[in-house]
Structure formats: structure tokens, C-alpha cells
Design brief:
alpha+beta; Aminopeptidase; Alpha-Beta Plaits; 2 domains; six-stranded mixed sheet; 19 strands; binds zinc ion
């Protein structure tokens, strides 16, 4: 096969408009390259989502590269300087949807493996765990894929998720954990009436205020290893009452909690329900809750594996990445139950934005870092 080149491969992937859950041939393209390198490839289709698992080698240790070929929608096409699915190089940058999140990392990892295999005898296994559904609801992607392959007996030891983790310069950050997230809507239902006759009405606002006050003023924790304190943020309070002489019938509010490993989604859910029950006893307005756990937290303690990634990044970029648990949730939350997982990829400053781009040079450097990781991992 012709030698794969990371910039060209990134461009080829960007040319495929794989907006979640549409694949458009992105997984086929990746699979064809991996098959040529000797990977055994298998596709897993869960409902409308296509997924790929590919492995080379049968022995341990087994390092896996995880990621996604889907991208977020383009937004207003008229605002892009160039069409988002026609990759363009300008001033040392590569523009296109998915340039940062995360087609460059997929190309870089594939090329790193190619380079590594051409100069080393593999003393373990390398695999790719790639979904076409990370940017959407993510129920038919990594979560089901890793459960399925584990059931089939696949045992992964370490995993690198290639999400764009560096905030400013390549090599500045590894994510070794993520906070969990829970969303809650509170609706208080009372009875509408005239402010001059409150005995004939039932104002839902005091009940809503009291539950919010109780939730907001409860200290969740003082942080956990690798994590800042958990945080509850009220994001909206809605009554929508235009009159000053009317007691409204309904009031609602919404909040989000980003939480560390002191909690689980379930434990926080129970705490919210208990708080509601306490407040409910004092009011006749009915307080209704709608709670959605959108992700559990995970933490990978610093280890030889995190050091390998840090050392590799330092050798190529001269920056030693910080281990961080900041930011939103990622598919690593589904992988953490099966193996030791960290996230490391390119600079994500423009991810999901109009004119998404990365430095061309960073694509090559990321390839070198991934190759260094493989060298150290199998040394
Ligand atoms: Zn992503």
C-alpha cells in the first residue's frame, strides 16, 4: 500500500460530510486503511449507527485508540470562509468541519500505527474503537460497542481517546478524568388568583424558592483527588407572569450539577428527591421533578501509562501536558469501566465552531506523539 500521510488522510476524512448519525463512507475509508495494515476489522450496527472495531495482534498488552468519525452540523453555511467539507490550507492551518474534532486525530493515530509497524515487531495488540455517534445522543455508539466486544471476550488494557484535549498549544493537556453531569427541572404547580385574596389562591413561587435555596446552600463536597468541588448551577427560573396583581399558577426552574467522584448520578438524584420531599411537606403547591443523569464521573489515577503519554508529548513538543479533569463529558465515561482510559488529542480551540481549524504542523506532531506512545508502551 502507498504510505499514508496524516495531512492527506485528514483531508480525505473531512471531505466526507459525516454529520451524526450519517456516516457517508467515513468508517469504510478508515477500515480500508486499517485492513491494509493488517487489522482484523468488524462492524457493529446498532439501530441507525455504524461502529467499527479493528484489532491487530492477539497478545497482551492491548492498547486501544478510541474516537469518532461523526461531526457536528455546520451551522450557517454562509458564515464559513470556505465550504466546511472542502478542506482548505491557509496560513499554516487546515480548515474544515472535523479538523479538530476529531478527524485529524484519527488520521494521526492510523499513520502512527503504520509508522510503528514498519519499524517494530508488535509485541501485543493495538485496536481502534470508532463510533459514528459521539456528537449525538451517543446511545448507539461507544457505550454499546465496548459492551458488545467485551462480551465477545475482548480485553483492553489501556485506551487513549483522541478527543481534542489541548486548550492552547499542542501538548498542554491530557484529560485523566471528567466530571459527571446531571440536569434537573423543578415545576411547582399552585392555583392562580388575585394578590389581594391570597387565601383563595396557592402561590407556587415560595415553594420553588425554598427548594432552590436548600439545594444551592448545601455544600456538596470539598473536591476529590484530581477534581475541583462539585458545583450546582441554577440556569433559569421561569414564571412568565406579566401582571402585578395576579398570583401565578406555575413556576419552574432548571439547574445542572457537575460532580466529582464523591457522588454518583443516583446518589445526587436521591438527594434532590429527599430535599423536594422535605419542602413539599410545608406547601400545598405540588412540586414536580424531572431529573436526567447525563454522565457519571471518571478518574484515572496518575500511573506509568499517564507518564508514557506525558513523556511522549514532552519529547515531541517540549511541553509536559497537565493532567486535568476539566471540561464537559466524553465517551471515555463509557470506557472507564473496562480499562484504564485517558484522553489526548489536538488543540480544540475551534471545535464545533464556524471555520473549525487546526495547525497543519500539529497534525504531524500529533502523529509523532502517538507513535512515541506506541514505542514506549511496547518497550
Ligand atoms: Zn469529539
Amino acid at each position: 500500500m502507498n504510505k499514508l500521510e496524516p495531512l492527506e488522510f485528514t483531508k480525505d476524512l473531512i471531505k466526507i460530510p459525516s454529520v451524526t448519525p450519517f456516516d457517508g463512507g467515513a468508517l469504510d475509508l478508515l477500515q480500508s486503511k486499517l485492513a491494509q495494515l493488517g487489522f482484523v476489522c468488524k462492524r457493529y450496527i446498532f439501530e441507525d449507527v455504524d461502529n467499527l472495531y479493528a484489532r491487530i495482534g492477539t497478545a497482551a498488552p492491548h492498547i486501544c485508540f478510541a474516537g469518532h468519525t461523526d461531526v457536528v452540523p455546520t451551522g450557517d453555511l454562509g458564515k464559513w470562509s470556505n465550504p466546511p467539507f472542502e478542506p482548505v490550507e491557509k496560513d499554516g492551518n487546515l480548515y474544515g468541519r472535523g479538523a479538530a474534532d476529531m478527524k485529524s486525530a484519527i488520521a494521526a493515530f492510523t499513520c502512527a500505527v503504520q509508522n510503528f509497524l514498519s519499524s517494530h515487531k508488535l509485541k501485543g495488540s493495538i485496536s481502534f474503537l470508532i463510533t459514528g455517534d459521539e456528537e449525538g445522543v451517543a446511545i448507539n455508539g461507544t457505550k454499546k460497542l465496548i459492551a458488545q466486544i467485551s462480551e465477545e471476550g475482548e480485553k483492553i488494557d489501556h485506551c487513549i481517546v483522541g478527543e481534542p484535549t489541548c486548550p492552547h498549544i499542542l501538548g498542554d493537556m491530557i484529560k485523566n478524568g471528567r466530571r459527571g453531569s446531571i440536569n434537573c427541572t423543578i415545576k411547582a404547580h399552585g392555583k392562580q388568583g388575585h394578590v389581594a385574596y391570597p387565601d383563595k389562591a396557592d402561590n407556587p413561587i415560595p415553594a420553588l424558592l425554598e427548594i432552590l435555596y436548600k439545594l444551592q446552600n448545601h455544600k456538596l463536597d470539598d473536591g476529590a483527588q484530581g477534581f475541583q468541588s462539585s458545583n450546582l448551577e441554577i440556569v433559569t427560573i421561569d414564571v412568565g407572569n406579566p401582571a402585578s396583581n395576579v398570583i401565578p399558577s406555575n413556576a419552574s426552574a432548571r439547574f445542572n450539577i457537575r460532580f466529582n467522584t464523591n457522588h454518583t448520578g443516583e446518589s445526587l438524584k436521591n438527594w434532590i428527591i429527599e430535599t423536594r420531599n422535605e419542602v413539599q411537606q410545608k406547601y400545598s403547591a405540588h412540586i414536580e421533578l424531572d431529573i436526567v443523569i447525563s454522565g457519571e464521573p471518571f478518574f484515572t489515577a496518575p500511573s506509568k501509562f499517564t507518564e508514557i503519554v506525558q513523556d511522549a508529548a514532552f519529547e515531541i513538543t517540549k511541553h509536559r501536558p497537565l493532567l486535568s479533569t476539566s471540561g464537559g463529558t466524553s465517551d471515555a465515561r463509557f470506557i472507564k469501566n473496562y480499562c484504564s482510559v485517558i484522553e489526548f488529542g489536538i488543540v480544540g480551540a475551534t471545535l464545533h465552531q464556524i471555520d473549525e481549524h487546526v495547525k497543519v504542523d500539529d497534525i504531524y506532531k500529533l502523529t509523532q506523539i502517538y507513535e512515541k506512545i506506541l514505542e514506549k508502551y511496547f518497550a
